[in-house]
Amino acid sequence: MRPVHPLSDSELDEHLANLDRDGYTIIRNQIAPEYLDPLRDIAQRAADDYIAAWRGGMKLSEVHIGDKYGNRKFDLNPNARACFLWGDAAIELLDHDTVHAISEPALGTYHFSDLVANTQRYNPGEQLGGFHRDFRPGLTANGKHRGLWFFFLLDGYTAENGATSVIPGTHCFKADEDPGTPDPNPDHYSNRVQVIGDPGDLLVLNAAGLHCAGMNQTREPRRTLNIRVMQPEGKFHYNAWDLVGPGRQAKASARVKRFMQPPAELVAELRTNWAVMPSEYEAD
Ligand SMILES: O=C(O)CCC(=O)C(=O)O
């Protein structure tokens, strides 16, 4: 997929420098308007299907969704995984030029790990959620990023609709370094930044750095599709290439085929089925 605004070499360098220094960068105008509705539809249906499965008794551990404190508001933001199963536009998104232009220099060898729909729904009166890290370490011994999350903002990010907040620089720790325990009080972090953006903008985040979702005070959903990219040593929950099935495999470009293949050493152990599938899913 070609972005509306392809990055020039100097813009690419600037975003890579932001990532190295701050652990995040925001890239404007990355999704053509005609793709926004199909992608919103994928995020919405995937989240709805996860919520229905959860209400039907699905265990969060079956889909590797954590609930360490037992207070996860799953029906507000289910973090639906494997969203490439919900529509062809998601496969095109995995071919996004900017995702690949950033991943190669920032990670070195990189693989697709997951496509997650983050859909914050109306939740008035609540405060900011807890800052957390999704993996560790943030950096390898030679200073590469262990993983990057590419949040495509489908409805935009505002202070009112629950835009993601980040703490700049907190991704900067290697395997032998302890980044410390996050403070449960978000006000502890006076340097926190809430990322504001328009529909079609892209937030790239090293999710080993502290970040959290905001609470949506509006009646409209705040949807993102988040392409999670990792080095071979990162977290993988399923074999994406097998799971996508022959129908969509046939539509994938050579670049997407390479991207979706898990690291060779994990192939034997990764699952090729998933606990939540689209309601209209038909096996090829
Ligand atoms: O939905 C968001 O704003 C952030 C999601 C998040 O915290 C995560 O993916 O770990």
Name some characteristics of this structure.
binds 2-oxoglutaric acid; globular; five-stranded antiparallel β-sheet; 26% helix; 284 residues; three-stranded antiparallel β-sheet
What does this structure look like?
By secondary structure, the chain is of the alpha+beta class. The chain has a single domain (9-60, 73-231), classed as Jelly Rolls. The chain has six helices and eight strands. The chain has helices at 9-22, 33-55, 88-93, 97-107, 240-251, 254-260, and strands at residues 24-27, 111-120, 147-153, 165-166, 193-194, 202-205, 211-212, 222-230. The strands form two sheets. It has a five-stranded antiparallel beta sheet. A three-stranded antiparallel beta sheet has the order 5-4-7, with no helix packed on it. It is globular. The mean pLDDT is 94. Bound molecules: 2-oxoglutaric acid. The site of 2-oxoglutaric acid has 9 residues, from strand 7.
Order of helices and strands: HEHHHEEEEEEEHH
Number of strands: 8
Determine the CATH superfamily.
q2cbj1_9rhob like domain
Range of strand content: 5-15%
The residue ranges in which pLDDT falls below 50 over 5 or more consecutive positions are none
Strand order of the largest sheet: 1-6-3-8-2
Largest sheet: 5 strands, antiparallel
> Residue-averaged pLDDT, rounded?
94
CATH architecture designation: Sandwich
Percentage of residues in helical conformation: 25-40%
CATH topology: Jelly Rolls
Radius of gyration: 18 Å
How many domain modules?
A: 1
